[in-house]
Structures are given as C-alpha cells and as structure tokens.
Amino acid sequence: MKFSKTLYPRYSEKLREKIIALDTSPAVIYDKQFITETVKNLQTDLRINEKNQLFFAMKANHNTEILKIFKALGLGIDIASVQEYNLAKKIGFKRISAMNPTFTQSDFSKFDDDTLVDIDSLSQLKRFVSFQKNKTFGLRIKTVGEYCSFGISLSDHLFKYINENRLQRYFKRIHFHNSNRSLVELRKQLEIAINLIDRYPAIDTINLGGDILGFYRSGRHEFLKELFRIKADPVLSKINFIYEPGDALIKYGGMLLTSVIAIKKNADVNYAFLDSSKWISGPWHMGSPIVLNNKTLDDSFQKKYYFFGNTMFSGDTYFDDPITLPELYENDRLLFPEYGAYTLSNYRGFHMLPKPTEYMYIDGTLLKI
Ligand SMILES: Cc1ncc(COP(=O)(O)O)c(C=O)c1O
C-alpha cells in the first residue's frame, strides 16, 4: 500500500535522534503526534457526511495509552472479545461495536445494552435472541467469495428465521468487512444494503468494517466523491455509517527498533540474526528496515541479507527474499516502520521471550508506556 500523503503527516521532529539515543532494544516506539494527526485527517474526510462515525478496531493494538489517544479524539471502538470489551469500558469508550462468530451467550450477557452486537450465523442469532428478547442486532453480510468464513450469505435460512419469528424490528444494522477492498466493491455492498433496507426498514446503520485504506487506493478524491454520492442518495442519506479501521489508524504510527546480534555467511548467503522476532509479534506485512547506525561509509557497498528472528523456529524469518542493505555489523540497529498494528496484539510467548518495551514520543520525550 502506498503511503498516502493526505492521510499521513510527517513524523515528529527529533524523533529519529531520540530513537538513536535510546538504549533499549528491541523496543516499539509510537509517535503520538503522528497518530493524532492521522486520525484528524481521516475525521476531516469522513466529516463530509455527518452520519459517518469513526471507530478503532482494538484487535490491531490494545495498548492502553494508544487507546486513550483514540478515546480523547472521540472515536468509538470495535471489540472481538470480552477482554477487549472490559478494557474498552475501563478506558471509557461510549460507542462499542462487537463482532465475533464465537461469542457465546455468556459473552453477550456481559455487554451493556448500548453495545452494537453484529451476528455472524443463524446459530449465533438463536443464541442471542433466546435470552435478549428486545435487543437490537446487526448482521455481518458475506459479499466476497466462498473462501471467506465470516458473514451470512443472502440466501441463508437466517432471513426466514427473522421473518418467522417477527424479529424484523430488531434487525437494525448491516456489517460488511473484508480486506483488499476497493470502491467498486463498496458500491456493490451499498447496493446489497439498499436491497436489505427495502426489505427490513428498521435498519438504520451500515458498519463498513476496516481496511479503509482500500477505499483510498484509487485516490482520495475518488473516495471523497463516493462519500458525497452516499450523502445524496435518497436511501443511504438517512443511514448512519460506521468505519472501524485498525491498520489505517496505527500501522504507521508505531515502529520497531531492533538490533543485529549476529552476522553469518554460508556460501554466498548472508544471514542477520536480530534480537526480535517477526514470528512472535510481527505484522502480516513489513517494509524494509532503515539502518540507523551502520558503519559502511560507502553506501554503494551493499549486501543481500536474509533476516532471522531470535527464536529457534527455522521459519522465524522477516522476509522470504533477501533484502539489500549497506553492509551490516553486530550491534547495528534497525528500524522497521509500519509496526503499530497487529504486532504486539498478536504477541505469543514462545521461549518465554518478553514483549519489546513500548515507548511513546510525546512533546520531545520518549516515555515508557
Ligand atoms: C470486523 C472487523 N472490523 C475491523 C477490522 C479492522 O481491519 P483493518 O485493520 O484492516 O482496518 C477487522 C480486521 O480483521 C475486522 O475483522
């Protein structure tokens, strides 16, 4: 994904110097100003339609200090477990959207009446309505190929169940989410929504899920035109819209500082072993690292490196292919940008290795968080 200059600001001044001076490795460093400006830029775009609401998908990052930033900026929150729900309540989020195909009756009973629960199957709906008689629900609708396990297809028996049990007035929301989205797909989903609203007029909200960067892929201008079209549409103009991105709000706002522990050469292949692990807590995609303090004076002297993490799992590699960088030495420090989302929230405790320490850059200071 190209780094959108309209959505993303510049990193804070002096951040690089502070990171170079930091004596902790590995560490994850967040830039508060960058995160704040990112949210504000997105809010500015979404303000085209006063019925748009921005939520943050907690699955991307559940660091309390990060969540407090989003709360202070007025965002709602998307949760997928009771644990995430409890944290959201503790921080004080008022608008909460909840979706997970495996929510049980006991999970549902822990959510307060204002929580927007979206259902993923007929069995889940039966579980939900069996004890929450007068509560509203949403349905996650499946619009992509059969390979996707999430969502209800339009031919599902669930709709018959809604009609036969007179649940129409409780069916208030439609939820779409899939990755690698486009505006073409958004338009298709809106067509489906218009049809459903015609059949179920109680629907007042469409949750468009995450991957908002997909909507920006054909350019910001095109997405903004789409927002104006929605606002002018006779049906959609009456509907509330929730956007609940994770990646877009925090991916670029966090970066991993890690060190080269060992360099090895086998035949013509160079290996660099780092003090962090992509397998333990790495995002699904990582861009090339920035070398912060390499000693190669001549930048034209480059080598190809395979990067490995600090576990005994042979698949703990950072990239499938070697990365070309200036020659590396032991103790060189690397900075991986794009490390704020789906990293430490995915953390697994292999070898009992600790999580990297987290820092936030606020007003010229790196604070441990
Ligand atoms: C229901 C739902 N909403 C929002 C998101 C956040 O998606 P992204 O981080 O791509 O914006 C996800 C991610 O899996 C999701 O499943």
Brief synopsis:
Helices cover 29% and strands 23% of the residues. It has helices at 15-21, 32-46, 64-72, 82-91, 105-110, 122-131, 158-164, 183-199, 213-216, 220-232, 247-250, 278-281, and strands at residues 27-31, 52-57, 76-79, 96-99, 116-119, 137-140, 171-175, 205-207, 240-243, 254-266, 269-274, 290-291, 302-308, 323-326, 333-336, 357-362, 365-368.
Structural overview:
Its cofactor is pyridoxal 5'-phosphate. Residues 35-143 form the Orn/DAP/Arg decarboxylase 2 N-terminal domain. InterPro entries: Ala_racemase/Decarboxylase_C, De-COase2_N, Orn/DAP/Arg_de-COase, PLP-binding_barrel. With 369 residues, this protein is of the alpha/beta class. A hairpin with a 2-residue loop joins strand 10 (254-266) and strand 11. It is elongated and about 70 Å long. The mean pLDDT is 93. Strands 1, 10, 11, 12, 13, 14, 15, 16 and 17 form a 9-stranded mixed β-sheet that branches. Strands 2-3-4-5-6-7-8-9 form an 8-stranded parallel beta barrel. The protein has 2 domains: 48-250, TIM Barrel (Alpha-Beta Barrel); 254-368, Lyase, Ornithine Decarboxylase, Chain A, domain 1, CATH 2.40.37.10. It is built from 12 helices and 17 strands. It has helices at residues 15-21, 32-46, 64-72, 82-91, 105-110, 122-131, 158-164, 183-199, 213-216, 220-232, 247-250, 278-281, and strands at residues 27-31, 52-57, 76-79, 96-99, 116-119, 137-140, 171-175, 205-207, 240-243, 254-266, 269-274, 290-291, 302-308, 323-326, 333-336, 357-362, 365-368. The relative contact order is 0.16. Residues 57, 59-60, 78, 99, 177, 179, 209-211, 244-248 line the site of pyridoxal-5'-phosphate.
